[in-house]
Amino acid sequence: MASKESFLFLEIFVIFVLVLVFSTKASPSSTSSREAEALLKWKASLPKQSVLESWVLPEAENTSSTLRSPCNWNGIRCNRAGSVTEIDLPNTGLTGTLENLDFSSFPSLVGLDLRENNLTGTIPTNIGMVSSLTYLDLSTNYLNGTLPLSLANLTQVIELDISRNNITGELDRRLFPDGTSSSKTSLKSLKNLLFQDTFLGGNIPEEIGNLKFLALLALDDNFFCGPIPPCFGNLSELTVLRLSNNHLSGPFPEKIATLSKLSDLRVFTNSLSGVVPVGLGNSSSLVVLHLAENNFTGHLPPQVCRGGNLVNFTADHNNFTGPIPTSLKNCRSLYRVRLEHNQLTGYLDQDFGVYPNLTYIDLSFNNLQGQLLSNWGECQNLTLLKIAGNMITGKIPDKISSLKLLVDLDLSSNRLSGEIPDSIGNLAELSFLILTDNNLSDRRLHEDASFEIEQESFEWYNPEPNR
Ligand SMILES: *[C@@H]1O[C@H](CO)[C@@H](O)[C@H](O)[C@H]1NC(C)=O
Ligand SMILES: *[C@@H]1O[C@H](CO)[C@@H](O)[C@H](O)[C@H]1NC(C)=O
Ligand SMILES: *[C@@H]1O[C@H](CO)[C@@H](O)[C@H](O)[C@H]1NC(C)=O
Ligand SMILES: *[C@@H]1O[C@H](CO)[C@@H](O)[C@H](O)[C@H]1NC(C)=O
Ligand SMILES: *[C@@H]1O[C@H](CO)[C@@H](O)[C@H](O)[C@H]1NC(C)=O
Ligand SMILES: *[C@@H]1O[C@H](CO)[C@@H](O)[C@H](O)[C@H]1NC(C)=O
Ligand SMILES: *[C@@H]1O[C@H](CO)[C@@H](O)[C@H](O)[C@H]1NC(C)=O
Ligand SMILES: *[C@@H]1O[C@H](CO)[C@@H](O)[C@H](O)[C@H]1NC(C)=O
Ligand SMILES: *[C@@H]1O[C@H](CO)[C@@H](O)[C@H](O)[C@H]1NC(C)=O
Ligand SMILES: *[C@@H]1O[C@H](CO)[C@@H](O)[C@H](O)[C@H]1NC(C)=O
Ligand SMILES: *[C@@H]1O[C@H](CO)[C@@H](O)[C@H](O)[C@H]1NC(C)=O
Ligand SMILES: *[C@@H]1O[C@H](CO)[C@@H](O)[C@H](O)[C@H]1NC(C)=O
């Protein structure tokens, strides 16, 4: 019995070894020659181009299998078994269509990067055949037509970028997990999803809220309409959310403000309305916040700079009322701030601090009071300071002339009084100085010839700045 068993075992072992030898030696070469053929077939369908020059097989039919593999071709990478894992041809001038690329021929393909090329035509349906793909970047091409539903087959894709193409149609909800645990196909592994600047429209599917690994969602510069799905508040890994330049309407979902990793939120130029959640910036450290050009009302969130990292902040052209966010006062990280065209109240001399990195601040057309203190002169990097159309009183401080980089200064339509400091004439970069509609006296205006002066209006314009 024992010897019979061990004989049987030996027999099985030998078969196993044979299978192993066969599968590690013979199968890769057949896989890789199938891959090579698929790539050559694609190449043959494209206009002749130098980027694909290395894509050739040796003439002789009996050449060894390594020479017949595509692994040394430009842009092609393989695994140890000689099967293609990556096709990387970004920014190579690649021209033609994807129509004749047989995606089903690449069982090991994990990365396909064809961004910044001249690809035209549609995204073929059989792209769903490369189900091992984890990285797909077709951005910045001329691809058109709609997104194939077969993309839902790419269950392992972590990054999908189809930005800057002529893609039309809608984002089909079936591309995303339906929220049940059933093993339906979907793009369920996505961390980064980018469809910037295409022609996609319709509603944003709320199923995107079920992508539990999602860290970056960029749907800006499209034609999306309807609401921001409230379930985006479930995306606990989200750090970047960009929805600007669409036709989105409705409120800003409250729960998004509680996402603890959110650092970059852009919803500018939509038709969003209602109140921005009071807790925005309270749970996470915002670096970029753009709320501009919507129909928001109510107060600005007081904690926008609670983390002390806010760099760019815009809320201009809305209907915000109430005070300047308290956390802005000590927000030394600020670089660019636009709050113009709202109905904000508060005091210029109490609600703001000193911002060493600030280059641009526009507070025009609000209801701000108080004085322009000399500590604004410590914002040494300012190139633009606009506070027009408020109720600012007092004098223009001499210290304003220490803003050596200032190009634009607009303090028009306030209640400023006293004399215009002579030293303003020393600001070498100043091109636009608008002080009209105040109670300023004009003594200095007659003495300085370096500006073209409209005396009556106090509007100065220097057409040739010393650069
Ligand atoms: C195989 O290759 C050798 C040299 O590379 C060549 O002389 C021979 O004709 C080839 N045989 C076949 C069957 O192609
Ligand atoms: C790609 O398209 C651009 C713009 O249409 C064109 O200028 C450029 O020559 C094209 N490149 C190639 C390699 O065809
Ligand atoms: C999805 O992937 C499977 C397995 O690779 C394949 O058989 C099927 O045809 C694919 N479906 C689509 C729609 O691409
Ligand atoms: C892409 O869209 C632009 C803008 O509408 C258009 O000018 C261009 O012809 C389109 N290109 C293709 C390949 O569809
Ligand atoms: C896509 O662009 C091609 C030209 O590159 C054009 O012939 C075709 O009609 C376009 N298809 C769609 C659906 O817009
Ligand atoms: C958000 O997730 C919770 C569970 O974490 C779930 O009960 C709820 O339905 C989800 N909300 C939305 C709007 O999907
Ligand atoms: C803002 O709302 C008002 C009143 O509801 C409406 O008239 C206006 O068109 C809206 N503006 C924008 C930019 O959506
Ligand atoms: C902000 O966070 C603090 C502490 O983390 C908490 O006490 C406060 O209620 C929060 N405020 C809002 C508006 O969420
Ligand atoms: C502000 O509100 C007024 C009155 O409701 C409305 O007419 C106007 O369009 C709003 N402005 C913006 C920028 O939404
Ligand atoms: C802030 O805005 C400026 C000007 O638009 C831009 O160059 C810079 O990259 C922005 N900073 C961040 C952190 O987004
Ligand atoms: C100012 O900007 C520099 C360069 O971007 C940065 O290293 C520094 O931390 C910023 N200062 C503050 C106070 O954020
Ligand atoms: C101001 O600008 C200079 C040069 O543009 C830059 O090096 C510096 O980081 C900025 N910030 C501060 C705090 O000076």
UniProtKB/TrEMBL annotation:
<dbReference type="InterPro" id="IPR013210">
    <property type="entry name" value="LRR_N_plant-typ"/>
</dbReference>
<dbReference type="InterPro" id="IPR052595">
    <property type="entry name" value="LRRC69/RLP"/>
</dbReference>
<dbReference type="Pfam" id="PF23598">
    <property type="entry name" value="LRR_14"/>
</dbReference>
<keyword id="KW-1133">Transmembrane helix</keyword>
<feature type="transmembrane region" description="Helical">
    <location>
        <begin position="7"/>
        <end position="24"/>
    </location>
</feature>
<comment type="similarity">
    <text>Belongs to the polygalacturonase-inhibiting protein family.</text>
</comment>
<dbReference type="Pfam" id="PF08263">
    <property type="entry name" value="LRRNT_2"/>
</dbReference>
<keyword id="KW-0433">Leucine-rich repeat</keyword>
<protein>
    <recommendedName>
        <fullName>Leucine-rich repeat-containing N-terminal plant-type domain-containing protein</fullName>
    </recommendedName>
</protein>
<dbReference type="InterPro" id="IPR032675">
    <property type="entry name" value="LRR_dom_sf"/>
</dbReference>
<dbReference type="InterPro" id="IPR055414">
    <property type="entry name" value="LRR_R13L4/SHOC2-like"/>
</dbReference>
<keyword id="KW-0964">Secreted</keyword>
<feature type="domain" description="Disease resistance R13L4/SHOC-2-like LRR">
    <location>
        <begin position="186"/>
        <end position="388"/>
    </location>
</feature>
<keyword id="KW-0732">Signal</keyword>
<keyword id="KW-0134">Cell wall</keyword>
<feature type="domain" description="Leucine-rich repeat-containing N-terminal plant-type">
    <location>
        <begin position="33"/>
        <end position="79"/>
    </location>
</feature>
<dbReference type="GO" id="GO:0016020">
    <property type="term" value="C:membrane"/>
</dbReference>
<dbReference type="InterPro" id="IPR001611">
    <property type="entry name" value="Leu-rich_rpt"/>
</dbReference>
<keyword id="KW-0812">Transmembrane</keyword>
<dbReference type="Pfam" id="PF00560">
    <property type="entry name" value="LRR_1"/>
</dbReference>
<keyword id="KW-0677">Repeat</keyword>
<keyword id="KW-0472">Membrane</keyword>
